[in-house]
Amino acid sequence: MNNIEWKFKAEYAKSNRSECRFCRLKIKYNELRLAIMVQSTFFDGRIPTWYHYDCFWNCTKVLSEEDFPGLDNLRWNDQEKIRKHECNNEAATKSYEMLEISVDRPIRSSSCALCRKKVQSVRMHVIKGNRKTRKSYDIDCFFNTFDSIDVLQNLTVDKIKDFHLLPVDCQQEIQNRLQKRKIEIDSEHEKKKRKGGEEEETSNSNGKCCSNVEKEKEMLNIQCDKFWEIKDNLRNNLTKREMEKLLLHNGQQINNRKFEIISHLTDCIMFGPLEPCPACERGQLFFSSRYNSYLCSGNVSVWTKCKYSTQKPARKKFTIPELLSNNNYLKCLPKDGEHSERLFSSRRPLISNLLRGINFFIQPDLHDVKRNIEKLGGTIVAQLTSKVMLAIFSEAALHGESCFKNFVLQMSEKRIACVSDDFVDQIQSIPLHDALAKCKINSWDADSIEVKRDQIGYASLEKTMPGSSKRKKIGQNFDNEKVIIKGGGAVHACSGLHEIAHVYQQNGKAYDVVLNAVDVNSGRNSFYKLQILKHDHSNEFWVSRAWGRIGTTIGSHLLESFDTASEAIEFFCEVYLEKTGNEWNSENFVKHPNKFYPVKIEYFSKIPSPPKIRPGSKSTLPKAVKELMKLIFSVQAFKHTMLEFSVDVNKMPLGNLATDQIQRAFNILSQVKEILKMDNDQLSEMERFIKITDYSNQFYTLIPHNFGIEPPTPLNTEDLLKIKWDLLENLKEIHAAYKILHCDTGDDDPMDVHYAKLCAKIEAILFLF
Length: 769
Hints:
By secondary structure, the protein is α+β, with helices and mostly antiparallel strands. The chain folds into 5 domains: 8-93, 2-Layer Sandwich (first zn-finger domain of poly(adp-ribose) polymerase-1); 95-186, first zn-finger domain of poly(adp-ribose) polymerase-1, CATH 3.30.1740; 359-446, Rossmann fold, CATH 3.40.50.10190; 484-602, no CATH class; 605-769, Poly(ADP-ribose) Polymerase, domain 1, CATH 1.20.142. 37% of the residues lie in helices and 15% in strands. The protein is built from 22 helices and 24 strands. The strands form 7 sheets. Strands 17, 20, 21, 22, 23 and 24 form a 6-stranded antiparallel β-sheet that branches. A 4-stranded mixed β-sheet has the order 6-5-4-7.
């Protein structure tokens, strides 16, 4: 089960320190608070921005109660309050009520916020007022964008500011579009009405459906009230230490956070203590209302967390230790050891962000499909451009209607895969690649989603390389970090000490390390850099630390000073032990679960020192060979190659990855290749998923990749495997070429020296035509 990046969060305030981001007032302890989850700028993870209950609904629109993980953890009245408010929520719609449509003039042209193209002169563009932001849209993009969030459902020309000032032809076009959309909406409502009537008729004939739903709701209400009654009694009658003793006595692992201890102990008292995870045999099962099941907190290996989940875990009898037998509340608990079975809601959980990071082009009239794709985290692209990773059409429309022939031609030229409109239903019950195979309707050759993602990622990286006039996107960091080699390694640029300090080393070993941690399931792609710096001319010492998400500006750094080398070394070793679980001086590194792993880097100078002689000026090599040598040893070509494969050139500067580490990565890809060849008789789907996840985590830890804020891509297709294999081949060649670049050329022409180092005879071939 993948870790989903939930949009919102609901809980009771654990202290009185949090502040509402809307009204800026404190949120009281134990008060219901709601949050919008956002990416942290200081570390690789997401954080909640908290709001009072009433303030929250002024800031966002909730599409479904399933957008709130942990809703079942709240008291029943609060659950129902959120469900009812969510159904009637109109906050997001209000922000779009006043729309200004104007005519673009050549002098004051603007670009569309969606497709980024210039809105042509004497053509309409739409500006929406959303607090302090105003965005311009091409009229086509506007209708495609706002259609999916029901803004057009109640939009009329009367609600459009300055509509009467528009030219007549522009007014007519807008009216025609709104009328067309109104007809489509009425048609959709009629279909839903007929479908609802059929369902109601079926329900009435059976006499069960409505009564079962109400009965389930009533039983869940009773269970929730009883659960909270036990929680309140535990909080009022037992200390944290006493609750920990109860859990340990019943064979449960304990958590440091009191609210989690109370919840887990309540679960044990009400339903019975949980047996260890049957998959990893060591992990502690715990209830997750986010996934509506019990999950495991253990690990299947040192690289990968256990993904076991069940709604029917094995349990045992709850017992009370002798030391707590006199507690007044515990005396009141049933002595027979009988436990009730936990009830689960039968509603199907919506897997938000299941399709996050995938760009879709959808048949224009499939409005329900558009909404569902956005609910699942997919991105809708208004035009069939090279940014599209997957297209969705109805099979009848694609193969039958002549008006879509142009789309077929474009998809074929751009090698875009196409699936049928039942893909949305399939993706929620089977894995992505199975759903793609089952719903595929394109007859032309197409690239996989992974290949498309790499192509799009490289194109965006090229635009943001140094020298580009385009501004960087938030969270992205593609400018190379300045590397100054002093002492035993590269001084952290963020320390600001590269001019006065060097990396400290003792007995030939530098106190400098780069650590990585990757988890494709949770989306983690973190780095942690640690080093000791010594002043060039005095006995001043610093420990420099930097951390964050690879390939982005997300992260921070810290510099701490020490009076002596021993103090700095002691602190360095403590941090290293905390982050890796290993002693600094241990000879054999042992990977520990949820800990960082060191990346072996062989630093060269960032840029070779300028040669005394300009390369090629005194060379006796033929002109064609000279041109080839320039290409072979082009630093810019190295950068482009690494960016093309999404390798992070900040955390792994050119040519610096150790060759033995590259070889280990080759071995990992070979193992994945064997796994992909195995059929279901040799390996179950769950075993295949676990092994591929495990090897993917290892590969991306050894070879740092820049995924931006997107989660790392599992190595689960042969296409992606080939891409990564080519990457490693290129890294080996770059490493060899960079070693040659850094050799001393003396008074000889550098091009001749580099040619000699290749140990090859190269001749130009003359073609006669």
